[in-house]
Amino acid sequence: MIRTESSIRILGCRVDAVSRAEAVDRIVALAQGETPSLVVTLGVEMTMFAQRDTRFRNLVNGAALSICDTIGLLLASRARRGPLRERVTGVDLIDPLAERSAAHGDLRFFFFGGAPGVAERAAIALRNRYPGVAIVGTRDGYFAPGQSPTIVASIVASKANVLLVGLGSPKQEYWLEDYLAATKCGVGVGVGGSFDVVAGTVPRAPRVWRRAGLEWLYRLIRQPSRWRRQLALPRFVIAATREAIAHRGSRQP
């Protein structure tokens, strides 16, 4: 298992301090390792879910790599003068990994998740951008629990070593925990709705919104049905602020 040089625990969840380039390098190394490794792209909603779900919290803390996916975690780290330097989302990882595959041929991807046809369109878009990228299989995210062994068999047959799973959290992390070893992939990464963005079916927030840390607001404006999920944000702010105050108090002489 690869560990980062530094990390921070925010509300009990480990977040590793890596840049996008460092995260890509680690995923490349994990893909070629002998032990199947889980990579979590951790967000605020996931962190709050972990407060009431011990299994999920243990999964995050036991992952080979836990990446800061949202601005909330980054700000919580800064409030404690922690080590996080930038946010690295699941979709931020896909293009550089695809570029690496096209250049070196050492990464073979299986895309699992999204609505019917979305993973295939994402694969086509990446093949157009990076000729030579090895996307060896795709599968949508609509399946009955009893179909998981069949999905695993198709992933094994593809000879993929990088499994990107976009089932939404926590479903994607639980599926990877249960089945990653059986797929024979070196690394599994939960990427949420990234296939929709890569495929062009869902537009990503403009760069100015992302730089301002308002990608969540852009998505909420475009998809008002997400409002229930956003209720985790104020709860996170309150809990993380209390944690930061307690951390500062514990450092005082």
Characterise this structure.
This protein is of the alpha/beta class and 253 residues long. The chain has one domain: Rossmann fold. 53% of the residues lie in helices and 15% in strands. It contains 13 helices and eight strands. The protein has helices spanning 20-31, 44-52, 54-62, 71-79, 90-104, 118-129, 148-158, 171-183, 194-199, 207-211, 215-222, 227-230, 232-251; strands at residues 7-10, 13-16, 37-42, 65-68, 108-113, 134-139, 162-166, 187-190. The strands form two sheets. Strands 4-3-8-7-5-6 form a six-stranded parallel β-sheet, with helices on both faces. Strands 1-2 form a two-stranded antiparallel ribbon. A hairpin with a 2-residue loop joins β1 and β2. The longest helix has 20 residues, at 232-251. It starts with 6 loop residues before the first strand and ends with a helix. The mean pLDDT is 90.
Question: What is shown here, in short?
Answer:
The chain has 253 residues and is of the alpha/beta class. Helices cover 53% and strands 15% of the residues. It has a single domain (7-199), classed as Rossmann fold (3-Layer(aba) Sandwich), CATH 3.40.50.
